[in-house]
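Batch job 17 of 40 flagged for manual review because the log was empty.
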Amino acid sequence: MAEGGTVAHDRLRSFIERIERLEEEKMALMADIKEVYAEAKGVGFDVKTMRKVVSLRKMDDSDRQEAEFLLDTYLSALGMIERPMGSVQAAE
């Protein structure tokens, strides 16, 4: 039984160490991404808008269209925009 416990212990340690290395890599990548945004901001791009574009590009077309339709619908309901023609057609 002791051998099985040792194997499980070693395997657990291996998993934990792999996760720790990946977390370190993730932090390094996040720092790199932050630098790219800072560079873009330095030449005049709006970082908030860039983040939104990155988020939208991750979505498939139907999810993105649905999100845009809902945003237009909510903005229209609040009187912030006139209901676009595309939204009327999409709703029908």
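Reviewer: the log was empty due to a logging misconfiguration, but the result itself is present. The longest helix spans residues 2-42. Unflagging and moving on to job 18.
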